[in-house]
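Hey L., structure's done. Input below.
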Amino acid sequence: MRYVGPAGDAVLAAHPETLVHSGRPEKAGRVQAWVVGPGLGEGPGAGVAVSEVLGTDVPVLVDADGLRGLDAAAVRGAAPPPC
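Output:
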C-alpha cells in the first residue's frame, strides 16, 4: 500500500508496511489505483491532487473532499483504463 498525504505518521503507526509520500501524487511512484478525497480538505492543493490522479492511466476512486475538486468536463472526457 502507498499513502500520499499529510498524515503519514498516523498511517505508519497503524500500517507499518505502508510506503508513505508527503508530496504531490505525481511524485509518489508507481501505483495500481488511486483513491483520492478522504481528508484532502478544500485548500488549493486539493484540486491539483484530484487533477493529477485523474490524469493517470490507472483506476481512480474519488470520494469525500475529492468530489469538490472535480472538474465535470475533465471527468466526462476521461477514458477508462485499459483492461
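The radius of gyration is 13 Å. The first strand starts at residue 2 and ends at 4.

-- N.
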